[in-house]
Structures are given as C-alpha cells and as structure tokens.
Fold:
Amino acid sequence: MLSELQTVSASLRAADEALALMAKMYPICRSITGEGVRRTLDLVEQVTPLERTEIPTGSAAFDWEIPREWNIRDAYIADLEGRRLVDFRQHNLHVVSYSVPVNRTMTLDELQPHLHSLPDQPDWIPYRTSYYNENWGFCLRHKDREALAAGPFRVVVDSDLAAGHLTYAESVVQGSTDGEAIVYTHTCHPSLANDNLTGIAVAAVLASALRHDRPRLTWRFIFGPGTIGSLAWLSRNEDRLQRLQAGLVLGLLGDAGPVTYKRSRRGDTLTDRAAAYVLAHDSHRGVLTDFEPYGYDERQFCSPGFDLPIGRITRSSNAGYPEYHTSADDLSLIKRESLAGSIRAVASVMSVIDVNRRVVNLSPKGEPQLGKRGLYGKVGGAGPRALEQALLWVLNLADGSQDLLAMAERSKIPLDLIEQAAHALENAALLKSMACGPGTSNQSLAINPKASTCRS
Ligand code: ZN
Structure:
C-alpha cells in the first residue's frame, strides 16, 4: 500500500526490492527500441502486470517518426591476432547506441573519428547515442584509447537496424473515479544505474504497492523510451489527456543529491502543489526547481500543445553528478537510503494527489449539528479536539471552490486529518465530493476547455 511506503522501514524494504530488480536489469543492452527493452519489460512484469504496445517503424508521432528497430549481438575492435582491445561483451557502453553494422580493417587514424573517450575521466567509458543520424562508434576508457597502436585493427559491429517496432508498456491501477494520473519513466539506457534503472525500478515497486489500494484516480505507470516514447504514447492517448489530473516523470532517484521536484510548465497544477506540500516537510528536505524545457519526458508533456500538469522527481538533475552518462553510473553509485527516501517522497506526493478532491458542504446554512450525527467528540487518530477542528474547517471551506489540499494549507492542519474529517462528513451525508476531483482551475485547458468543469 502507498501509505505503508511512506514509512522508513517499508520504504527500505521496497528499496531492496528495487535494487534486486535493478541488478537483474543492469547487464541488458537497452536502447530506444529492440529486444533489450522487451527483456527489461519481462523483468518489470515480474513485479507488476504490464500491457504492452508495439508501434511499427515509420509510424508518425507528431513531428517525429518511429525509427527502425536496433538490435546488437556483438561488437569489438581487435588486433590482427584477434585479441579484442575494445569488447562489447565486456561492457555494452562500448558501442554507440544505434551503431549501424560494420566489418572493416582500419588504421587508428581512420578509426579515431569513431572513438569517444573522456580525457578528464580516463577510467570511465562514456555513453553515446546516434539514434536519428546513421553512424557508428565505440566508447572506451581514455587510458585504453591512449594505449592503442597505429593498427590496422579489425572493427566489427554485428547489429541490425531494420523495420520493427518501438515498445512501451503500461501498468494500470484502476481508480474509483474517471480521473487519471500518470507516472512516466524512460527505459532506453543500457548499463547505467541511476539514469535510468532507478526510475524503472521505483515506478515498478510503486505500481505494485498501489495495486493493493483502491485509489481515487486511475494511475498509469508508463515504461517507454525517452522522447520518442512519450511522444508515441501522447500521440495514441490524446483522448485520455482531458482526464489527466496529475503526473510525474521519474528518474535519477538513487544518488546522494536531495529529492528535487521540477515544476510543470504552468507551475500551479495539482502535481506542483502536492510536491510543494510534501517536500516542505522536514523529513524529505526536498528542493523545488522551476520548469525549463530541458530534461526528460516532461519536455513533451509540458510542450505548449499539451501543457499537462506533470512535473519531475529526481535527485541530482541531468548531468548534475560527475558519473552521469558514464560507466561509473553503476550499481555501486546507488545508495539504499537515497532510493528509500525517493520512494517515500514519490509515494507521499502520489498519496496527496490521490486523496485530494474538491468537496461541497450539503448543509451550508449555519453549522450542521455534529453531535446528533456522532461526529462531535468522536475520537480520531489525533484526538477528539484535532478532529473537531478539522471537521469545522472542512465544513466552512467546502463551498465547492476549494480542494482538501487548500484546506490543509489554510488551516495548517495536516492533510491526512483533513481527509479523515472529509471522509467522516461524507459518510454522514454532510459533504459531497465533486466528480472531477481537485486540480487547478485551468487543468488541461490546452486540450479541452471543458476539462475543468466539475460535476457535483
Ligand atoms: Zn540519460
């Protein structure tokens, strides 16, 4: 359950489950398409059920096209005696992702334009891709590059770049209302741990935990490649977007940086308010940053034609830690406590989003008599007096214009107690939830001006 994941002990157990999944996913060579993605989803499916979508090469996704599918079996640079000097089988970062097939004998001078290394970090292999530009290359430790002789070398990339599919998957937890929320995490990086195995693993354990709840919103956890994956999903789900009340992009959740929430483009959506509410709490010591059109898939969700209520939770930002996009972003970089703290923070933000709703007082002329309904002096988790105050605040503010989160903020009463009071008042027929739930006044306006119309 999500509420459980907000405790330290349960979040540490969930972090262990996430770490075990990451260890299984780490060796797989993933890219934006191909068997590596499917094998990764097979592992995610051991944690939470998935519905998969395969989109054929050449299909349109707005201004983009689904690329050819890339698969790789082997790649190396060898001397003429057959000794492998750079070997894909040793580390899948050695090959530039989407490298076209190669089988040539070359001198070092001919090879140099195809080599990538980090002079400042001579022991680390860089991560490079060439998705939309037909090319090939090898990434290697700078110290190994410096040790290469003049050649000639056997240079082999045994890959396919052919018509196929782009694969994404969704784990859907059905809610009790027609509102929806999404969690998106990219699945396209090869053996890199913080970026992006932490995002995949945390999304998987959260989806699994939420399955034991009966959430208010339908939560859709989407596992897809960066950029082209979110574009592909958006292009096939435009009719669903008007029901979207909140959403998070997840990634980089296991390093030592503070939990960081990057606001949506609008900056005042339910997701932004929920994250601000949670991260203001001492136990998270979180950081809030403003939107910028750089980063992960929030770029697509927050493009002006969608302008969705979606923010991002990470720890260090992209390129915010030295190991980013290198072989040093391996499992040893991941801190169990950081991962557990991220799980607590994301579970808390999701919980706030899910319980929040707009409510209307059905007996607004004077205070309704609480005693005859058994609500006065009733003991709540925080004692009778605290619950009574929460009941009075909810009744007073429930004119239909405010949601529970706004009531918690104004009354300075914790949201869980406000929610408990609202629940008791609903059971006593003094309060009614509005069908579209909470959100901000201009939710999804870019897509459908009717989206913010609540039905009571
Ligand atoms: Zn990345």
